[in-house]
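Input structure tokens:
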């Protein structure tokens, strides 16, 4: 019998689960999900701070306008 995968509505937690998986499995996966989420938020925040510090020449080198950089740098870390 082939099992179907169901996509969870929470990105990265876990990417797919097999029907009938136990609550224990989900609880064991929770710390990994939280670690991934915190790492993602940290990386976004650091990237946006770096973008905010770039001068016009550096922004031109990466193909970003000053307005695009301002908008991106102004976003909250969870977005």
């Amino acid at each position: 019998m082939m099992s179907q995968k169901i996509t969870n509505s929470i990105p990265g937690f876990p990417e797919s689960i097999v029907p009938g998986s136990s609550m224990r499995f989900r609880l064991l996966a929770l710390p990994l999900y939280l670690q991934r989420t915190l790492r993602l938020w940290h990386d976004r925040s650091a990237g946006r701070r770096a973008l905010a510090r770039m001068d016009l020449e550096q922004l031109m080198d990466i193909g970003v306008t000053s307005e695009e950089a301002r908008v991106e740098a102004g976003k909250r870390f969870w977005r």
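The helical segments are 23-53, 56-62, 66-73. The first strand starts at residue 6 and ends at 7.
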